[in-house]
Design brief:
Alpha-Beta Plaits
Length: about 90
């Protein structure tokens, strides 16, 4: 299943803390990352699209980063998948 991982910065997150930590951190096994973005607006601070077959790697991401981010994880579809599902439901 594909997930959107939305990370909103907590007040204690600074560039000098977050970036070096991200440079030394790797996504957990079982999480296949399609994209990671750092929007210039700052909210959210990080947006990730990834796939996982079970919840364990998602829980690991939360455990690794919940001191610096409020994290929301939601199942999601690509636009193409959503349009195909819509066409299927309409017929």
């Amino acid at each position: 299943m594909r997930y959107a991982i939305i990370m909103r910065a907590k007040p204690n997150l600074t560039f000098s803390v977050g970036v070096p930590r991200r440079m030394s951190w790797s996504y957990p096994d079982g999480l296949r990352v399609e994209a990671e973005y750092w929007p210039s607006t700052g909210d959210p601070a990080v947006f990730v699209v990834a796939q996982a077959d079970d919840i364990a790697p998602l829980v690991s991401v939360i455990a690794d980063w919940d001191d610096l981010f409020d994290i929301t994880i939601s199942p999601c579809l690509t636009a193409e998948e959503g349009l195909a599902l819509g066409a299927q439901l309409a017929s």
